[in-house]
């Protein structure tokens, strides 16, 4: 898919104030620092459309971007940021959960997982909650440039095995790097195929 335009629309704390349109929407979620905002920049080929940081807890709002005047990309805050106080973690959790459950335009949620780590309880619980809630989602492994090919394959197979302990059918899985663009075309083609359905 060719990205001819990508623009910031609005930031919100409240799902009811998100853009009132019928455009299909694709959102990015995952632990703080997993690379959600970076992947949005990579997909759109824009250096700083979404704000990124080496410190976790950068994105704290629901951020809408309009792509090709046809669909929205949404950058969400991360979950599980240990250094945030419990009050802030609870507030962010409610914001994320209400966005995911109430936003009718949400067409697919991309759940980002750092390919370097073993499956973490917080991600597995989140994925199970999505499945139980009937939310359409895909898994996106990030930071693939940080591992050798064989270690990458090993980690991803192990992750799939872990998911298969609970789910008979795996969701679509993508392997990406915002540093070298790996997986960019596949993700954009996937979005394109859903948009055309
Ligand atoms: P929060 O908004 O805090 O939840 O984080 P985020 O998930 O949006 O992460 P962000 O995109 O801000 O990236 C966090 C850090 O990881 C930054 O220092 C990025 O440069 C780095 N990073 C993100 N993606 C990649 C990647 O594919 N490869 C490498 N090597 N670094 C990455
Ligand atoms: Mg971010």
CATH architecture: 3-Layer(aba) Sandwich
CATH topology: Rossmann fold
Considering DSSP H and I runs of 4 or more, what fraction of the residues is helical? 25-40%
Sheet with most strands: strand arrangement: 1-3-4-2-5-6-7
What is the beta-strand fraction? 15-25%
Strand/helix succession: EEHEEHEHEHEH
C-alpha termini separation: 15 Å
Total tally of structural domains:
1
What is the typical, i.e. mean, pLDDT?
95
Rough shape?
globular
SS class = alpha/beta
How many individual β-strands?
Answer: 7
Family: Belongs to the TRAFAC class TrmE-Era-EngA-EngB-Septin-like GTPase superfamily. EngB GTPase family.
Domain EngB-type G: 22-197
GO biological process, one term: division septum assembly
Keywords: Cell cycle, Cell division, GTP-binding, Magnesium, Metal-binding, Nucleotide-binding, Septation
